[in-house]
Amino acid sequence: MxxxxxxxxxxxxxxxxxxxxxxxVTIAELAESHAVSKxxxxxxxxxxxxxxxxxxxxxxxxxxxxxxxxxxxxxGDVVRQSETxxxxxxxxxxxxxxxxxxxxxxxxxxxxxxxxxxxAELDKxxxxxxxxxxxxxQGAGQTKGNNIQKVAASAIERAAPR
Length: 162
What we know:
mainly alpha
């Protein structure tokens, strides 16, 4: 399974805000930090605001802040809201399934169970769990991009099966 870039950047926006709880974060700052277009980020930010995860303020001194504590935002919920297609294989969509093995196939059950377990694992992790690093720009000699990448990498390492 591969998450979309949209979900990747959605998680990055939330992580960036969680790492900077004392101030508003701007879309321009996010765009520069992640080398992604402001227009793409605006769509993500609007979705997150609509879901009640971000507070947005327009104008001078405006920006983004988490609307909920990072400990109350489950990664599984964010992924479910931002991913548009959880059909891992064709037979997950009966309306478009052309596989001739469907009646005898048990592989779809394996994939469905794996997908449910994947989401259940994500439900165990909060935004606070994946942002246990110093705020962006606060570390000695760290650049904005490096800090976010280290946070993401450490979250992946913690989530990896042992």
